[in-house]
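User: Hi! I'm working on a homework problem where we have to compare a predicted structure to a textbook description. Could you give me the structure for the chain below?
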Amino acid sequence: MPKLHVRKGDMVIAIAGKDKGKTGRVLQIFPKKERVIVEGINFVKKHIRPRPPEQQGGILEQEAPLHISNVMLSCQKCNRGSRSGRRKLENGTKIRFCRRCNEQIGKA
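Assistant: Happy to help. Predicted structure tokens:
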């Protein structure tokens, strides 16, 4: 399984595709397929057949998975997309940091 640069709950920015430049929160990650679902990005229309008695048919809009290479971690301090690095602190804990401004992003 590859080492991924984003996690569930991270704010990311789309760097390619039809929603390039939009930001959103990571809802779900599929590490084996190297794909992520981001809130508000890459909407697709799904046609639903009515299933009696309770479900109505219609067209549903939902987020589709994006390839992980098409999203970049968004730094809150820089207010733009940035690469992330990993650093080990003196007390032994590992953190992620923004390579642009050295701001701590979260635990590694």
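For your comparison, note the following. The chain has a mean pLDDT of 89. The two ends are 16 Å apart (CA to CA). Good luck with the assignment!
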